[in-house]
């Protein structure tokens, strides 16, 4: 079959695999299937162990597992230096990382603390800019950066609070980065994914209600899968989307179009 994706032997950094339920793991699996070299970054030792365990089934593939705490410039710089030394060129980045303090999701929005606000922004939005900056010296052949967003960026969703504001900043950062890096042939896009039961989703208090509402109201009358987000991410990483940048693409059963 003709290789329409052209991701074989490309070096793609996948940030945010905590376990097999992670959106990032669905993407990594597809990347490995098409012959890309996948560089996993993790924050916690526990995630490192889980990544190495699932990679047992992918012994013959070209992979690496690198520590990267996106709250730290030093950690990001060290990670990309290591990646650059080992792989030379970076062709793509999947930024699938977000975090907020639990109390900022549970409390009334008006109770959001200065620290909690800054922490959510730093981890979930600024991290995209910091990562793009650190990767830039190695993205010498152009490439594609894809981040994960959510409808809470534009609508008020129960229990999403400070994370909604962080996702709004993330989507705006996607546009500004796209404008800044476009001349270097680097595209930057966000995927606004529907609700998926993952570790991060456990922090959203009304998650079950959200899943139910999507089933009831979305055009497709069902929730989306990890694989569907992965498929769209493959398109956004590949040449198939070569004319698209600065965009937020919805993989949400069409939920966002409904009144
Ligand atoms: P997940 O918990 O599996 O992944 C979140 C990842 O962020 C984890 O791997 C965690 O280690 C990482 N992370 C948090 N703080 C970090 C830090 N300081 N440094 C490095 N990594 C850090 O959950 P997920 O649902 O796969 O989330 C991935 C992305 O998808 C997030 O941006 C999330 O907001 C977004 N998203 C999720 C849903 C959903 O319903 N699950 C919907 C839309 C968007």
UniProtKB/TrEMBL annotation:
Pfam family, one: adh_short_C2
Tagged with keyword Ribonucleoprotein: no
Alphabetical keyword list: Fatty acid biosynthesis, Fatty acid metabolism, Lipid biosynthesis, Lipid metabolism, NAD, Oxidoreductase
Reaction(s) the record says it catalyses: a 2,3-saturated acyl-[ACP] + NAD(+) = a (2E)-enoyl-[ACP] + NADH + H(+)
Annotated signal peptide: none
Keyword check for Lipid biosynthesis: yes
EC number of the protein: 1.3.1.9
One GO biological process term: fatty acid biosynthetic process
GO molecular function, one term: enoyl-[acyl-carrier-protein] reductase (NADH) activity
Domain of life: Bacteria
Binding site for NAD(+): 16, 22-23, 69-70, 97, 167, 196-200
Binding site for substrate: 100
Active site (UniProt): 150, 160
Root EC class: oxidoreductase
Pathway terms, separated by semicolons: Lipid metabolism; fatty acid biosynthesis
Family named by the database record: Belongs to the short-chain dehydrogenases/reductases (SDR) family. FabI subfamily.
Protein name (database record): Enoyl-[acyl-carrier-protein] reductase [NADH]
The organism of origin for this protein: Ureibacillus massiliensis 4400831 = CIP 108448 = CCUG 49529
């Amino acid at each position: 079959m003709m290789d329409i994706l052209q991701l074989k032997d490309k070096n793609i950094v996948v940030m945010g695999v905590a376990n097999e339920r992670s959106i990032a793991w669905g993407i990594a699996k597809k990347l490995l299937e098409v012959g890309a070299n996948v560089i996993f970054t993790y924050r916690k030792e526990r995630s490192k162990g889980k990544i190495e365990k699932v990679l047992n089934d992918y012994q013959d593939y070209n992979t690496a597992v690198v520590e990267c705490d996106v709250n730290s410039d030093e950690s990001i710089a060290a990670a990309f230096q290591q990646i650059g030394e080992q792989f030379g060129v970076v062709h793509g980045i999947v930024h699938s990382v977000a975090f907020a303090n639990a109390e900022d999701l549970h409390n009334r929005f008006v109770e959001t603390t200065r620290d909690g606000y800054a922490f959510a922004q730093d981890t979930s939005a600024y991290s995209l800019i910091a990562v793009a900056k650190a990767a830039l010296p190695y993205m010498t052949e152009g490439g594609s950066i894809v981040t994960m967003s959510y409808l809470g960026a534009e609508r008020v969703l129960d229990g999403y609070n400070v994370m909604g504001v962080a996702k709004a900043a993330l989507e705006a950062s996607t546009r500004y980065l796209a404008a800044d890096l476009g001349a270097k042939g680097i595209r930057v896009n966000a995927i606004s994914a529907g609700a998926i039961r993952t570790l991060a989703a456990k922090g959203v208090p009304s998650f079950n209600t959200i899943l139910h509402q999507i089933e009831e109201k979305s055009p497709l009358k069902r929730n989306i899968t990890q694989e569907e987000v992965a498929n769209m991410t493959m398109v956004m990483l590949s040449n198939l989307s070569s004319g698209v940048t600065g965009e937020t693409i919805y993989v949400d059963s069409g939920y966002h179009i409904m009144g």
